[in-house]
Design a protein that fits this description.
This protein has 2 domains: 39 residues; 107 residues. It contains 4 helices and 2 strands, in the order αααββα.
């Protein structure tokens, strides 16, 4: 019994160390991004940095939207990767030792496989939703740009 508790404790500690390491890497990347934005001249910090990410023909009226699309893409991939890994780990844990959820014990190969499959499907659907949201924001940006171009060409032709 003690060996089982010790084994589970070591697995939890190992997983916690990996999560802390991943969290440190993410915070380090965010720190580098903030430092780069902070080193830009005062009036052009965020606008200039965000303008570099958009390759449109005219300056954007909504400077934040290209940044939102980048965040949605990164968030979508993070949700997919973390969700798949977490569902696999959860399914393996259910297969090997069982898992207590409230007063119900989840145990067995069938329950573990179903946890893995449902977790992967859920992660995929969340990833798909985030990428579709990103593409909708891009669509709105392009519709606004094309509408402005059409309005300009119609006024030039009539005038």
């Amino acid at each position: 019994m003690r060996a089982l508790i010790s084994s589970v404790f070591h697995k939890v500690v190992s997983l916690f160390r990996k999560v802390v390491s991943l969290f440190r890497n993410v915070v380090s990347l965010l720190d580098q991004l903030i430092r780069r934005l902070w080193l830009l001249p005062p009036c052009r910090r965020i606008d200039h940095a965000l303008q570099k990410t958009w390759k449109g023909t005219k300056p954007l009226e909504y400077h934040f939207l290209p940044y939102v699309t980048s965040v949605l893409r990164v968030l979508g991939w993070a949700v997919l990767i973390i969700g798949v890994l977490a569902s696999i780990l959860l399914g393996l844990e259910i297969m090997n030792g069982g898992l207590m959820v409230w007063k119900t014990e989840l145990r067995g190969v069938g329950m573990g496989v179903s946890a893995i499959v449902l977790g992967i499907i859920g992660s995929f659907l969340a990833w798909l939703f985030l990428l579709v949201s990103r593409e909708l924001v891009n669509l709105f940006i392009h519709v606004k740009e094309n509408t402005g171009n059409t309005a300009e060409s119609i006024t030039e032709e009539s005038g």
